[in-house]
Structure prediction request, 394 residues.
Amino acid sequence: MLTVKEIAAKATRLQTKYAARDQRMRDVLSVRQGDMSKVYPSMFSEDYPKPLVANFIDVAARDLAEAMAPMPSFNCSATNMVSDTQRKAADIRTRIANYYVASSDLPLQMYSGADWFNTYGMLPALVEMDYEGNNPRIRLLNPFGVYPEIDRFGRTISLTQVVVSDAESLAAQFPEYAREILNVRSVYQSASPYLSVMRYHDKDQDMLFIPERNNLILSNTPNPIGKCLARVAVRSSLDGEARGQFDDVLAVQLARARFAILQIQAAEKSIQAPIAIPQDVQELALGPDSIMRSANPQGIRRVPLELPAGVFTESGVLERELRLGARYPESRSGQIDASIITGRGVQALQAGFDTQIKAAQAQFAKLFQDVIGLCFEVDEKIFGSITKSIVTGK
Prediction:
């Protein structure tokens, strides 16, 4: 069993190892939050600190997550069910599995879980013990700051999670340690109002501690079944590292935002262009209904701003590149350039979108199979001696 110092050192090594992955996650999070200037600060100015185009990445991510979120059906049928006893046992197991899903609010969690899976390329799940309800519960974790260790057979060995929170919120969540969290008594402790909370889970223990408070342990629970209760679904990639759906299109979204700013600046310059007047005009009148006397009135005009015709079509080119990179068809937003007569044409346009859903749901099916199996083991090991009933509707 690892000590808190060994876990803190291990977490530091994992953060260093996955620094590039964390930076990708941080960039896509900033873009989805509308803070693109954090990712590309030199591309924005004080006059235009925010993008002037719709947040395409956030819209596409939400739509894709809502399409992936619906849960599959769960069936615990055995390979051989020739007797009524075996069929009844399989039916009971099916009802128990569906109760685990319903009591954990997993259908609602999946709307956030599917979004995390697409955005970050990974979805961790953890089985926790609910001693009040005497049931195991499934909780999906935000992959931002999660570092799983997986063996060559795809089994999760350990899960390290780093969450940043302010000291006052932590003191409210753990009032028994409020004095240690809020007060700084040692030179080794940080006076920053934001603290890193580390959670480590493996086959031996589940520990929660604060490194900035001299490794203050908030909770340390032995693992009752001697098996890591975390499982991770990783989006397929060439190098095996978690990569989100939109990691490669952030620059295209930036180009659209930058191009919109340039178009507005060009329009402003065109409206505020210098006024050319003949030499016989002695006074320049400005404002509505103003009068200027000249023998050559047709010479009074604003200097035209010459712009290439292709400039205004470049925005459409960038949008098409963004849709291509994000694999988000125009039919999802109701914008189709071609004239489609039959529904088969719409299905053809949706083909790339549907394959993403099928691939993700295959990953989710494996994840659910593993975590529900863990729920059965936890329920039998910890709550096996307690008689329980499944409430209708749960």
